[in-house]
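Data card: per-record layout.
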Amino acid sequence: MTTPEGGAPGAVETPGEARADRAAPPRKDAAARPPRRGPADPVRMLMHRHQELCAHAVDALEIAAGLEAHGVTDRTAARFRHRDVFSLAEELYARVPRADPATAPGAGPPHATAPDRRSRTVCGALHLLPGAVCVAAAAALTSVTTAPPAVRTAVGASGLVLLALAVRLGVRSGPLRLRHGTGPRTAGLWVAWTAGYAVYGDWLLGQLLAGGPDLPPAAPRAAVAPAVALAFALAPAAGCAHWFTARGRRVLAASRGLGELAARVRPLLLAVTLLFLGALVALLLGAQAVLGGGDPLVLGAAAALGVLLFLARLLAVHGFPEAAATGLASAAALEAVAPALVLIARLPGVPPVDAPVAALATTVGPAAVPALACTAAALGLLVHGLRALTGACAHWPAPSGPAEAHRP
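The structure for this 408-residue chain is written out next.
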């Protein structure tokens, strides 16, 4: 005997068993999979967010620099299922269609961006121009030593103006040209102050400590040898900056992560700093042998100033003009404190606040003030550069977005 549904004999299904069978949980192998969290293609969001960067990039390294400038790190790339920023940039470069090069921001004729031999010659001449102008100005001042004070003042002012114009032309061409805007407008003021103090600061501080200066009889005495050496130092500074930029881009192309890039860039920065320091010391010793003025402390202060100016320009060229201006402003402030304390101490009822400055100038010499100020500021910029110049955004000509806003 069978059931109406064709079951086994005697296997009559009761109503309770039927309800229990219908209420039984589904089998384990038929259980539904948990819903997928997040988008199936997480990189698509980055493609839309950085569409212009990816479309106009010439290779994956430019995209990596732009992503790093916008705060994307290797840890961020891991959330997009990539081991590092470079791997993520390679996928973006492969998936985003290339845009017309003529529509790229700031695009021009292809031959306009390729430096030729003539342009390199012009840049080299512009980098040597400040030294030539400084030598001519020093020779002109020497030739009018017996002239009236008004004539000497006019010749000196003309030389300073021409030297400032020559330096401006030199830093606006070649490897020293800024690629990330113009930077703070006050940076030029701090450069002028520190350079002027290197030439006339020791004389001024000595006159103030002696109760002077009694102008106009006390004619300012310039430190000619450091001034000439610093003016000629623009040429080795451009060469060292070009070497650091070229090697930095090679390291960027060979690195497979931001950590590896940072570990390989730090020795480059230390090496280029020592290379420039060696070239500057050679210039200072040569200027001392030709022009005289052999105070070692004065030469040391000039060397510290030269390294400070080089590091500041290197940071500004690679996208960190604010940090460069801060370092220069710190040195200028420290140099201004010394004569200010001497003048404040002359006020009636004021304690001798100039005692530390007087002791330092008497024991070591007036040049100790700029030496300490520039050395401290240069070390600060070097420490900052060891962190700031290790990112991908610092080694690409035109990263997307300001580099400094996204650095620690």
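Known properties of this structure: The two ends are 86 Å apart (CA to CA). Residues 42 and 80 are 6 Å apart (CA to CA).

See the next section for split statistics.
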